[in-house]
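User: Structure please.
Assistant: Input sequence and predicted structure:
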Amino acid sequence: MATDGSTERVVVGVDGSPAAALAMAWAARYAKATGASIRAVMAWHFPAPVGPVPPVGLTPMSVRAEVEHDKQAELDKAVAASIGDPPAVTVETKLAYGHPAQVLIDESADADLLVVGSRGHGGFTGMMLGSVSTHCVTHAACPVTVVRHASQHQVADG
């Protein structure tokens, strides 16, 4: 955290969803206005296996390296699409293995603000707030901003 006069750090959860793109764009505007830096974080994990043993440590290193390469490209593309290339603010990208909620909560320990979208990949259609964002709001070590998609605010004309 920026308590020593250093630059404020904003952590943003990125998963390639439209909600995450809006969160990234919001964080970029905030960072530009405040002089903060951004850490764009993408969590990833292998799908749950059938059985009690997760594949971490059992997956060949070449497979893991290929997945990480693809995820890094996805993260870089999402950041560039949301805030431009090159960005107008300082942006660091980070891949982390694990469940998205836990990865973002861990990242919040070293952040001044955590920014997440309201619904990312894997959410149930119609939910007002996704499970990852809910978990972050209730467990993060810093303040959390949840950026909602504009269509979630619209009321159907009758």
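The radius of gyration is 16 Å.
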